[in-house]
Fold each of these.
Amino acid sequence: MHKDKWIEKLELMPHPEGGYYKETFKSNQTLSDNNAIYTSIYFLLEKHNISHFHRIESDEVWYYHAGQSLTVHMIHPDGQYEKVKVGPNVETGDVLQAIVPKGTIFASTVEGENDYALVGCMCAPGFQFEKFELFTQAELIKLYPQHEDIIRKYAFEVIH
């Protein structure tokens, strides 16, 4: 199916970090701070509409659904860079599901020939926009100068 059909059929809307999303599940059970135990979304990225570097206070599990492989770029709190490809090509190194540990700064991209990737993302504890941090290139380069090239590719120059 074409990406525009996915966006229409799943009723996806633009996400501030890039791409499109829709919350599909939110646990009725809450933690002591009234946050849901988990939340889950559909998330669609286009080749030229990437998910820019950001951080959340939850573990986030990614699940491949359709389209091209999606590359998750992670800068762990200790400064280590890691990249994981979530997609259908397990014979060449893709995984069908992957985790971004809480507190990790991450971005994601579609780098193949197809123009989109559709994944699901589940956060535990549940995702909250109030605890969502977007980063500028300058902020990240100051923290992780060894990753300047990747930061310049996948972080906003300025946040609008």
Amino acid sequence: MLKLAVLISGGGSNLQALLAAAADPAYPAQIVCVGSDTDAAGIAHAHAAGIPSFIVRPGDFTNREAWGLALAAALREHGIGEDPEEQSLVVSAGLMRILPAEFVRTFTPNLINTHPALLPLFPGAHAVRDALAAGATETGVTVHVIDEGVDTGPVIRQARVRVLPGENEADLHERIKELERPLLVETVREIALGKIQLSQL
């Protein structure tokens, strides 16, 4: 059974999708904790499911690296990355922070993210807006390994969506999210079953 830690900053729609999947005994992964950098609304989903949660606020630390060390310590308290013999995965599911380099080195390649574009196109925080500004006729979502760059890690899975004429950022982002949730759930399933070997990407 793959142990999951899910990191969020907002409403937690991807977290909800993973919680729903993990509620099925046949799903080969279990969420053991949910972490955030703020009082995220999505923490309520963890509470409703009886999943432990924690908040590690960057503002409580002198720098990003100190915050990253505290975040890593919180994950280890829940058994994530503590035992090298035990399979675990950290899922950044809407965490709106660039993770510090030392944190990334500690957990990668068992550290994944979803991004609302077809990487390497449109990295960064405004991917949907950037795709529209560039006149893209197609975009999508990427699940990738987090490395020390910004959205530069190895691509695991992608799904494509056509950009509709005259579509605005909010509507396009919502259609991308509709692809993102099942793609993340299935990607985690394949990682848990060994169909995807993150160390070999």
Amino acid sequence: MTPASADAPAAPLSGVLVADLSRVLAGPYATMLLADMGADVVKVEHPDRGDDTRAWGPPWAGDQAAYYLALNRGKRSLAVDVKDPDGLAAVRALCARADVVVQNFRPGTAERLGLGYADVAADNPGVVYCSISGFGPGHTRPDRPGFDVVVQGESGLMSTTGEPDGGPTKIGIPLADVLTGLNVAAAVCGALVRRTATGQGGHVRVSLLNSALSGLVQLGQSALVTGVEPERVGHAHAAIVPYQTFPTADGDLIIAAGNDALYRKLCAVLGRPDLAEDPRFCRNADRVAHRAVLVAEITEALSARGAEEWSALLTEAGVPVGKVRGVLEAIRTADASGDEATMTVDHPVLGALELVRPGFRFAGPAPGPDPEVLPPPLLGQHSVEVLRELGLSAERIEALLERGAAAQHPVR
């Protein structure tokens, strides 16, 4: 991996302070993306247990849960108890200084603590404040707890996933949470741009349900246009053929012939030009109508060779194709291709720790092991440092630590 250039341009959110009052996935994922863009993210955690995901193992890297490590690079950890008056005062002081506040307390909790938008904006009028909830403030029972798997079901995502003759299937990753995190990061960046232009902050509201509904894209629109529930199509595509996985002699392959020209190229590579001329398959609409027959013909042709060989031939012909890979295989393949899919950070306990990079890249040299990228923090690793920055005296900090209202977990 290539070291970062000393004269590389500043990260786009350099100088932005984010108070991260969120936990679990959607909020921490969003604030990690903000940290990836250069923001100084202070993660506020309970001094004893910290973020829930710290306990979500196995698997573990040493004593650190892989789940937590996936969502918290680039942050500093401030472990204080917001039920303690001085701990709460410290968090309020952090919010008063922050450019961005992100929270996913259950509806009403932030307001009871004096950390709601109105309270924070009274001391910090330009703040960009983001509330994350499961179902949104206008939803019936807005205090209803929102978990990814519940929202996958409620949003229709689950109903569209799985084989046609099977039941609805949970998506393998917490997609509703991930979509929410992406929406939070995008909305916060947009609000920061507006603040630069107008000086005005504002209250951004993002819910898991609305994020998942917006993620239905063409299936949501199809349902609105037709008034009919979309059917599950498994590995295939409801409106394009061939656009699915196929078995080969030694593994599964994905072929996405998204238009008539690509379909003809596919037929040529398969040595089946007759399939391109057959009136049942000439146009995509015809292929959709005769899906089962065509898929059987393509499957038979693909059985003659292995996935790697077909992949090379189809790629050379310009036909979109890919192997069905396992997670570790996919990461290693991307890295080996020069895609810089991973980064290495220096973790205070684990040493060199490999992490998956964010999905975006900024122009310039790709960073390698970079001491400027903070590893996922230990619980309370930066408590004293942050409390000093907030103006607390050494005596007050020591008192917080002595009574357990704050924690400073030393680097071992």
